[in-house]
């Protein structure tokens, strides 16, 4: 990695949306009222202001301390046991989502290797609380790998989310360096297994570009995801959260993102959101409906 590239000036296509006011302030107030966290804030997402301003956010459950230390991620980590689960969190989240007038809700979490089910039961309770609170709500879950626990996957599938998302994040060649506590093959198998458990549920996954991957690695990862049953794909630019995180190798141009989108569509993906500021849950409802032309702020 070239050290001079760590904090070089970002290109024009990576101009970040403002933090927002008005509606964004209301969303922050609702989250504070119900003592809820978002991956938008914890992961230092560049689209936070834009999404809050448009009345949405991606909920982060199971606390804000992860038991793994992926080198790209801004979320706090600890080898000690994280905070205990909050039994009322599913209900608080459902109330907040209703107050935010959400019809499409994305739920993600930190990885909780300390829990026997990896937090799958908590995901299930949250999905059920949302269904009870909001009529006709669509729910997307973005889960960790649960260490390959089949029963955990069954628990999530029995709650019947509308979309199951598990991010591959990077190419096979970089996986062990960037995600040392995870496995490329395990992530692919998680997606494939869930597809067998719930054949009618769309599978979704995403990759970050700009960590040092080569075209052949990107191509292989996209094909591997498709072979695992994934039909919804997100591709976005990796941004280094701090000097201690994995450095940015390059900034991928919007044109190249468009090329990868066309490649993925040609390989059978039904929905592909691809662009510098695309993230897993950015415009997730549009991604779900196939309207991905508006994925850029």
Describe the protein's architecture and organization:
The protein is α/β, with parallel strands linked by helices and 297 residues long. The chain has a single domain (15-289), classed as TIM Barrel, CATH 3.20.20. It is 36% helix and 14% strand. It has helices at residues 23-33, 39-42, 48-53, 89-99, 120-133, 150-158, 172-178, 184-197, 215-227, 254-266, 284-289; strands spanning 37-38, 58-61, 65-66, 76-77, 104-109, 138-142, 163-165, 203-209, 232-237, 271-274. The strands form two sheets. It has an eight-stranded mixed β-sheet. Strands 3-4 form a two-stranded parallel sheet. β9 (232-237), α10 and β10 (271-274) form a beta-alpha-beta unit. The protein is globular, with a radius of gyration of 18 Å. It starts with 22 loop residues before the first helix and ends in an 8-residue tail after the last helix. Mean pLDDT is 91; it is low at 1-6.
- The H/E string reads HEHHEEEHEHEHEHHEHEHEH
Q: What is the CATH homology-level superfamily? A: Aldolase class I
Q: What ranges have pLDDT less than 50 throughout 5 or more consecutive residues? A: 1-6
- In round numbers, the mean pLDDT is 91
The strands making up the biggest β-sheet line up spatially as 1-2-5-6-7-8-9-10
Largest sheet: 8 strands, mixed
* Structural class by helix and strand composition: alpha/beta
- The number of domains is 1
How many helical elements? 11
Taken as a percent bin, the fraction of beta residues is: 5-15%
In quaternary terms, these chains amount to single chain
The value of Rg in angstroms is 18 Å
| Percent range of helical residues | 25-40%
CATH third-level topology: TIM Barrel
Principal-axis shape equals: globular
**The CATH top-level class label:** Alpha Beta
């Amino acid at each position: 990695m070239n050290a001079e590239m760590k904090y070089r000036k970002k290109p024009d296509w990576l101009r970040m949306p403002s933090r927002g006011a008005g509606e964004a302030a209301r969303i922050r107030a609702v989250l504070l009222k119900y003592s809820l966290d978002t991956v938008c804030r914890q992961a230092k997402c560049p689209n936070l202001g834009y999404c809050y301003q448009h009345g949405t956010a991606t909920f982060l459950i199971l606390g804000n301390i992860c038991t793994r230390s992926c080198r790209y991620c801004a979320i706090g980590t600890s080898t000690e046991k994280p905070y205990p689960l909050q039994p009322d969190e599913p209900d608080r989240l459902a109330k907040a989502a209703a107050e935010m007038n959400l019809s499409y809700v994305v739920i993600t979490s930190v990885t909780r290797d300390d829990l026997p089910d990896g937090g799958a039961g908590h995901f299930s309770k949250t999905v059920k609380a949302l269904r009870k609170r909001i009529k006709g709500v669509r729910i997307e879950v973005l889960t960790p790998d649960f260490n390959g626990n089949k029963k955990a996957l069954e628990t999530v599938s029995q709650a019947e989310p509308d979309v199951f998302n598990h991010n591959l994040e990077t190419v096979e060649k970089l996986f062990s360096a960037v995600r040392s506590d995870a496995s490329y093959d395990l992530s692919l198998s998680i997606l494939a297994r869930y597809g067998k458990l719930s054949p009618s549920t769309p599978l979704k996954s995403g990759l970050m570009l700009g960590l040092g991957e080569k075209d052949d690695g990107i191509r292989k990862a996209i094909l591997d995801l498709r072979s695992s049953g994934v039909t919804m794909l997100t591709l976005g630019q990796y941004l280094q959260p701090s000097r201690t995180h994995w450095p940015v190798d390059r900034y991928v141009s919007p044109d190249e993102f468009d090329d990868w989108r066309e490649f993925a569509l040609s390989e059978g993906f039904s929905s592909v959101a691809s662009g510098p500021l695309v993230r897993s849950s950015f415009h997730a409802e549009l991604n779900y409906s196939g309207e991905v032309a508006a994925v850029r702020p």
